[in-house]
Amino acid sequence: RWHANRLEQAGYKLHIEAPRNKGNADIVARKNDETVANEIETGKSDTLNNVRQDLLSGFSRVVVVATNKKARQQIEDELARHGLVMPRIIVGLRDQTSSEESFRYS
Description:
Blueprint: H1 2-9, E1 13-19, E2 24-31, E3 34-41, H2 47-56, E4 61-66, H3 69-81, E5 89-93
Parallel strand pairs: 3-4, 4-5
Antiparallel strand pairs: 1-2, 2-3
């Protein structure tokens, strides 16, 4: 819920478990003409499929929030292996020991 609160504070309207091309995005955030899919990832789910489905669904950006450093590294490596390193995809780390994320919303 911390991540959702952060998005709301940045002025986004949220839809939790929002339908997409196939399945659901964890959070879809809308602000002005931007629609951002947000995937909260522990490293145990199929991140690659989630990101691909978000892209196919036409979201402006895809934000992947890793819940720990190991998951972040795993996600970044997997996206790179499959050619999915691009400006539309942002991988961040939610540091559960503090109130910081490694990226910002504006």
